[in-house]
Design goal:
By secondary structure, the protein is an alpha+beta fold. The chain is built from 2 helices and 6 strands.
Length: 151
C-alpha cells in the first residue's frame, strides 16, 4: 500500500458523493417541472457508481507471456460510471388551465418523491462526511508516523 492510497480512496469517495448530491439536488429542484428541453416533464436522474482499481503489476511467466498477479489488485476508490434517467412514468394531474395540459386537461409531472430524494440527499451527505473523516484519520496517522521518525 502506497503512502497516498488512503487519501486517494477518501477523495474519490468525496468526489462521487458530491456528484450524487448535485444530482439529487437537481431532482428536488425539478420535482414540479412539467416542461423540459425534451418537451416532456423532467425525468429523475440516478447516479451509478463503480469501483476504480489500480493497475495490475504485470509479470512475465516461464513462456514470456504477460501474467497478471491477482493479488496485486488493490482498490483505489469509487467513481461515477454514469448518470441514468429513471424509467418511471410521469404522474398525471387534472389541471385544464395549466399551459402544459394535454387535450384532455391533464398535466404530466415528474414521478419524484421529495421525501425519498431528501433521504438520498442525507445519505449522500453522511457518506461524504465519512470520507472526510477517513481522510482526516489518514492525515493524523501520517503526522504521527512522521513525528516518530523525526525523534
Amino acid at each position: 500500500m502506497g503512502f497516498f492510497d488512503g487519501y486517494n480512496v477518501a477523495t474519490s469517495g468525496m468526489s462521487a458523493q458530491r456528484e450524487r448530491i448535485n444530482i439529487v439536488s437537481s431532482n428536488i429542484a425539478n420535482s414540479q417541472t412539467t416542461h423540459s428541453k425534451d418537451g416532456g416533464p423532467y425525468k429523475k436522474q440516478n447516479v451509478v457508481f463503480e469501483e476504480v482499481l489500480l493497475e495490475t503489476n504485470n509479470k512475465l511467466n516461464k513462456n514470456n507471456k504477460v501474467h497478471e498477479d491477482e493479488n496485486q489488485l488493490s482498490l483505489k476508490g469509487v467513481g461515477v460510471r454514469e448518470i441514468i434517467e429513471a424509467k418511471s412514468e410521469p404522474i398525471m394531474k387534472y389541471e385544464p388551465t395549466h399551459p402544459d395540459a394535454n387535450k384532455d386537461g391533464y398535466v404530466a409531472y415528474p414521478n419524484i418523491n421529495p421525501v425519498i430524494e431528501m433521504v438520498d440527499l442525507i445519505e449522500a451527505m453522511r457518506s461524504y462526511e465519512a470520507n472526510v473523516s477517513a481522510f482526516k484519520t489518514q492525515k493524523d496517522l501520517d503526522t504521527k508516523t512522521l513525528d516518530i521518525i523525526k525523534t
